[in-house]
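Entry 0007
Protein: Arf-GAP domain-containing protein
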Amino acid sequence: MGGSRGGIYGGASTVEQGPGGGGGQGSASRDAEAEVWSRRVRDVVSASPANRRCFECGQRGVTYVDITVGSLVCTGCSGALRGLNPPHRVKSISMTTFTEAEVLFLQAHGNEACRRVWLGTFDPRTSARPDARDPQRLKEFLQDKYEKKRWYDPWGEGGGGGIGVGVHPPPHIWRHPPP
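Output (structure tokens):
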């Protein structure tokens, strides 16, 4: 039986349904689709110089995606993000699969957009970014950023230390993508 599964942003892909709702074309088809989405995540990493550095500490070589806010982070910061309240949903770029909704969410965000929102009023002259080698300072910085929303600018106008544009995203854009 053929079925159509529409994307959350209006895109649609046709998926053959087998008995019980599984993919009629087997695991090879699902593996190919998963590889397409994983490749698109890797494309997001290489699309912008900001996406090649950890959004949290600035270290080169991102290995995880913070699905909660749409940023790219290093291994150390991924663990710290999981320890927040509420914990951020973090996925490995190379060891996991991504859904269409997650990829579209990440493409709409990335580190520059996250910087404009989550560090919108951050001033590097009066506040310091943490050293990733100091777990306590990193944790405090992340709590200030996400739990207390110390530098939060929902419209992304502050620019996070001079970076940013006055683009007003729709209010729904920062919601967590569906699981």
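Curator remark: The domain at 2-161 is CATH 1.10.220.150 (Annexin V; domain 1). The mean pLDDT is 77.
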